[in-house]
């Protein structure tokens, strides 16, 4: 069986591009559709009900375009909306939290695992629940990093301001003896070199989004819905509710691709 329909990716903005980057590498034949709800980013500080509503709006827009699988490439949305959306859709739906938790359990040796994410993700406790369910003896430290997302969305992720913000925000983790830190927000891998520098080379960083693509690949095989190498990838399109120009700049920089197609899309009240 071969299924040419695209895989859909959704995020509050450019964060899900860190998941797409891995998809481009690991799934060379798959078609890709992406929505970033940049106009309403960040989702992190918003009430859970609102994040669920926005996530449904992106999901429905992609369903109308005929996707075969949905990747909720946003931890904040995964934490509050995955179960509901998974139960309601006839296609496979995957979030980024369980793959990240699984990878951290596998990685840690001293059992001290940190999680950094948005206020919404940290408040939901979704990573603690997932981690402790798999390995009850873990010591989990969670920290919200509310300033990171806007640094990324404004394309300042290489700047000295970014370095200062990351150093200040991560200071409370210094004495926690972590050997593993989950980047529990898909925006954070764009800050990875700075985060690694601040937290130290001895701490392994887990990119939950990248881990997710391994599981997407498995599901494509399990449900026998991969696209065939004969067809190959013919579609990779991005939609944003915000500025297509800024989104395109960040996408081309991060994905190291030229001439990415980005279109503006209206959703709900955006
Ligand atoms: N990229 C998102 C995440 O993984 C959300 C960032 C935000 O909008 O606050 O949580």
Describe how the helices and strands are arranged.
Blueprint: E1 7-11, H1 17-26, E2 32-36, H2 48-64, E3 69-72, H3 75-88, E4 93-95, H4 97-107, E5 112-117, H5 119-124, H6 126-134, E6 139-144, H7 148-153, H8 160-170, E7 180-183, H9 192-199, E8 204-207, H10 208-222, E9 236-240, H11 244-255, E10 261-264
Parallel strand pairs: 1-2, 1-3, 2-9, 3-4, 5-6, 5-7, 7-8, 9-10
Helix pairs in contact: 1-10, 2-3, 4-6, 4-10, 8-9
Keywords: Cell shape, Cell wall biogenesis/degradation, Isomerase, Peptidoglycan synthesis
Catalytic activity: L-glutamate = D-glutamate
Pathway: Cell wall biogenesis; peptidoglycan biosynthesis
Structural features, described:
By secondary structure, this protein is α/β, with parallel strands linked by helices. It folds into 2 domains: 5-94 and 208-262, Rossmann fold (3-Layer(aba) Sandwich); 95-207, Rossmann fold (3-Layer(aba) Sandwich), CATH 3.40.50.1860. 44% of the residues lie in helices and 17% in strands. The protein has helices at 17-26, 48-64, 75-88, 97-107, 119-124, 126-134, 148-153, 160-170, 192-199, 208-222, 244-255, and strands at residues 7-11, 32-36, 69-72, 93-95, 112-117, 139-144, 180-183, 204-207, 236-240, 261-264. The strands form 2 sheets. Strands 4-3-1-2-9-10 form a 6-stranded parallel beta sheet, sandwiched between helices. Helix 3 (75-88) links the parallel strand 3 and strand 4 (93-95). Helix 8 packs across helix 9. It is globular and about 50 Å long. The mean pLDDT is 96. The protein binds D-glutamic acid. Residues 11-13, 15, 41-44, 74-76, 117-118, 121, 149, 185-187 line the site of D-glutamic acid (DGL). Pathway: Cell wall biogenesis; peptidoglycan biosynthesis. This is Glutamate racemase. Provides the (R)-glutamate required for cell wall biosynthesis.
């Amino acid at each position: 069986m071969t299924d040419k329909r695209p895989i859909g990716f959704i995020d509050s903005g450019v964060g899900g591009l860190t998941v797409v980057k891995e998809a481009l590498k690991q799934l060379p034949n798959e078609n890709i559709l992406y929505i970033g709800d940049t106009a309403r980013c960040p989702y992190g500080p918003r009430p859970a009900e609102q994040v669920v509503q926005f996530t449904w709006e992106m999901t429905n827009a992609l369903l109308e375009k005929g996707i075969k699988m949905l990747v909720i490439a946003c931890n904040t949305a995964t934490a509050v909306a995955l179960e509901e959306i998974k139960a309601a859709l006839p296609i496979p739906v995957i979030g980024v939290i369980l793959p990240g938790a699984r990878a951290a359990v596998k990685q840690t040796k001293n059992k001290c695992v940190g999680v950094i994410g948005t206020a919404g993700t940290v408040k939901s406790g979704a990573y603690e629940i997932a981690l402790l369910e798999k390995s009850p003896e873990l010591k989990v430290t969670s920290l919200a990093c509310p300033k990171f997302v806007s640094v990324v969305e404004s394309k300042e992720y290489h700047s000295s301001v970014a370095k200062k913000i990351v150093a200040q925000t991560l200071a409370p983790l210094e004495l926690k003896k972590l050997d593993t830190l989950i980047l529990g927000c898909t925006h954070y891998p764009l800050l990875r070199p700075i985060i690694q520098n601040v937290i130290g080379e001895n701490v392994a960083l887990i990119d939950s989004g990248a881990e997710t693509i391994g599981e997407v690949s498995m599901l494509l095989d399990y449900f026998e819905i991969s696209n065939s190498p004969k067809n190959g990838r013919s579609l990779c399109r991005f939609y944003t509710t915000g500025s297509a120009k800024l989104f395109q700049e960040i996408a081309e920089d991060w994905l190291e691709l030229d001439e990415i197609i980005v279109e503006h899309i209206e959703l709900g009240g955006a």
